Amino acid sequence: MSNSKNGYGPNDQYSPGTGITTTWTDTLSVASQPSFRKSIVFGCSAAALNTPSLTHTGGTLKYQLNCNDVGITKATIALISLKAAAADQKTVDNGLRTRSTPPFGPSANSGQGAPIKRGTDYVVNDGTGSAASGNTFFGTTFNRKYWNVHYQRECTFGHPEADGITGNINPANTNPANNALIKSGTIKIPAYGEIRSFATRNPQQPDSQGQNAMELGLYDEQQEKALYLVVTSNGVTADNEGLFLGLLGCDYYKAAV
Predict the structure, then answer these.
(1) Helix, coil or strand: residue 153
(2) I want to staple 137 with a disulfide (CB 3.0 to 4.6 A). Which of 63, 73, 173, 234 is the partner?
């Protein structure tokens, strides 16, 4: 996620249901959910749309994880950001600003080439050697030399040895890890302060337009200001273990008009 609104052309106007919306994807980019979008809700004044200065005052990210595995599944959901001292180098090393082809324009999705690397950015127990019911990822730990961890939660779905969804709520099951199939929660997004555009009209071109703050985006912000939502799990569809994520984010801004 980014704390700044992204635009693709000069003087774009944003209002509910119109204009250009920012598009992100995740590192999987599955066909059923190829992208996520961010746009203005509830509308705002024309002066706020065209202001060169916005202040991001924080926000919330609501999520829902749903699992249909009949056995047991572990998943860790986290919100992380790079530490300032390592932000520039790690952004390059991990390709965190990499976009899908084409590299620019409304059809490009940020995030597809933005992996975090196991063994460098995080470690996790992969369950190798355990019984089938315990052969799952758990214990994700991030490298805090590079990363700030704003939120982290480990979720356990299902019951060991269950043979169906109905078995997951059977009171006779004496070894439940967690009998829930759905995990939901709210992550607080920290305030990241001022977003200011210094671009002005070209005096040599009378028809040129200045750039407003809403047109600043992913490549304009400081690397350490970017937030990354991470989910680690070994859930795959090959063994009928499906893990599904739903998101609803809301950022708040104050405009100087």
Answers:
(1) strand
(2) 234
